[in-house]
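Batch manifest, entry 17 of 40.
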Amino acid sequence: MHIAIFLDQHPRSLGGIQTSVMLQKKYLERAGHRVTIICPNSTKARATDGFWLLPSWPIALNGEYAFVANVRRSRKRLDRGFNELHNKFDLVHIQGDMWSGIIGLGFAQRQRLPIVHTMHFNMSTSIAALLGKRLTRYMFWLLSRELLKHVNRPRSGTTGDPWHYLKMLADEASIVFAPSHHFAHDLEANGVAEKVQVMHNGIDDDTIASILAAAAEHPTQRDAKAPVHLVWSGRLQLEKRPLEFIRAFAKADPDAVVDIYGKGYLFKKAERLIKELGVEHKVRLRGTVPYTKMLRIFADSDALVQTSVGFETQGMTVYEAAATGTPSILCDHNIAGEFAPGSHWLVKDESEEALAEAIAQAISDIKKGDKRAERLVDEDHLLQSGATAKMLRYYQSVIDHHNAPKY
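Output type: structure tokens
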């Protein structure tokens, strides 16, 4: 089959959703299918087959991220490209909620293609935290108005409510997916869809197999006298709480070092805070690294620290670390609920004091020979191969239903 995936950002730009879509493309193609990704441009993009780039404008100084400013122009380009396409699409999979949702739904309706939609992003929490409630309502009013211009629905019904806007998108899809049980529950509880299927974003089998094989071939025993090695990974933005983590780590003052991976608008503030607290010898800002290298870093670490609360719809770094056998110190209890009890350390509340206590406890447990990692060795459902096989069954059922005779 030929799957068209619509995405809000180019999948070679930085982000968990982008990484997961590139893995989906890899494993769908490995299974013998064809994938075309339709998305805005990015300075990180390389000219290659399998991508249709939409007319876009940069929204970051480095040009990594972009937005589609002219939906009508994109619509014409898509329709023209589809008419000239020899191997037509069998299905549209929308994996974004802004311009990709609007453009993808309109395109699928015009070409009479079945639609599935993965909702990766907690728009209600994240955008309100960034813009405030008033600007958030205005933004969703604009998005819903634009959506109604391009889909086959009455022009009335604009909304400033993020959940209602997501429902407008979900109403057009045959199946709605979420990457975790807790986010699926949130979508259902807020009326986005009656039934949301859970489809975890997977981790690359090839890299995990290589990491685990190397560990089996060269097993290492942790030196009880060495500092514990922690890792924090993500965008350095407010909702990820990197500054709170640095302050909590300084309060705990453990026998540990921490490497912080990622970039973002709080990078310079984090750099200054580390100097102010005098922890340069323990807290190191590493910037961004390639996906496969990040997985190897997780494998070589004693624990990952996850600090956002109520923002993550899956918590990909926790899954990635778990796939390599590395447990996490978790602030978000929703993420912990996706794993067997006792797999990770839980922070009791959102305060920096509670985070400092959890860090100190984890360091103590690790130095005593904690065995949490052994509870993660059978988490095969985290791998992309299994997720792809499951998704293909959904794809086929939607295509069969769409193509069935109508009486």
